[in-house]
Design goal:
Blueprint: H1 14-29, E1 40-47, H2 53-69, E2 76-84, E3 88-91, H3 98-106, H4 117-130, E4 135-140, H5 147-160, E5 164-169, H6 173-185, E6 189-193, H7 198-221, H8 228-231
Parallel strand pairs: 1-2, 1-4, 4-5, 5-6
Antiparallel strand pairs: 2-3
Helix pairs in contact: 1-7, 2-3, 2-7, 4-5, 5-6
Length: 234
């Protein structure tokens, strides 16, 4: 079981490599679907325990940007899934506008408690069985559950076609190993959640949104100055 450690100061340089890593993974995934008549569907999952309070507002701002970048790609539906306190794990309805989701997030206050990542993965699996989900985005800083059980859940999501794009806040090495394994097993990608590099983090989340709505071709068509130089490598 991986527990919380002392939070280190995030490194702004780390995220640049994660941008390239994400693009490499996006290519591997193939994502070669384009959905002209359907909206991409992303579950945006958040650790809302007390340790996340300092960066909660940043997460709220970034999710709004995810909507704006995909307007010309085909649209986006998002479900917010969060956990906090003693066993509380809730999901919003599916929404297709930034304002509705921002209002929902604005009513959430971080509360102390243990992680509930298993519930996040289970919710993603259940939603996928109802209607196809293109990606699960998860932002967190700790992992206090049985890592083998979570790996099994992540692998199941991979088989169901739901990649996990997982963003780690902080520098805890044990958490990093676990999060990277969840991403690998689900055929997703890992990156750091670094408030000191908010612009690059926003680009990563936008890339996930574009991937969900139009695949790699749509990702290329966005012409983002940060992303294009990386995707043209090789």
């Amino acid at each position: 079981m991986v527990t919380r450690g002392k939070k280190d100061i995030a490194s702004a340089q780390s995220t640049s490599g994660d941008v390239a890593a994400f693009l490499d993974k996006a290519r591997e995934l193939g994502a070669l679907r384009a959905k002209p008549d359907a909206k991409g569907r992303i579950i945006f999952a958040l650790d809302a325990t007390m340790s996340r309070q300092p960066t909660w507002d940043l997460a709220c701002d970034l999710q709004a940007e995810m909507f704006h970048v995909v307007r010309d790609v085909g649209g986006l539906q998002v479900q917010l899934n969060y956990y906090r306190g003693f066993g509380e794990c809730r999901s919003s309805k599916w929404v297709d506008d930034a304002k509705s989701l921002a209002e929902f997030m604005g009513r959430i206050a971080c509360r102390g408690g243990r992680t509930q990542i298993r519930k996040v993965f289970t919710n993603a699996r259940n939603e996928q069985k109802k209607h196809p989900v293109d990606a699960l985005v998860f932002i967190g800083d700790a992992m206090e559950e049985d890592v083998d059980i979570l790996c099994d859940k992540a692998g199941e999501l991979g088989l169901l076609g739901v990649p996990i794009f997982i963003f780690q806040e902080g520098q805890n090495e044990m958490v990093e190993r676990a999060f990277k394994e969840f991403a690998r097993l689900s055929k997703g990608a890992y990156a750091r959640f670094d408030a000191n590099a908010a612009g690059e983090l926003a680009a990563l989340l936008k890339a996930v949104a574009v991937y969900a709505t139009g695949g790699v071709r749509a990702l290329e068509a966005q012409g983002d100055r940060l992303l294009l130089p990386q995707m043209r490598k090789g």
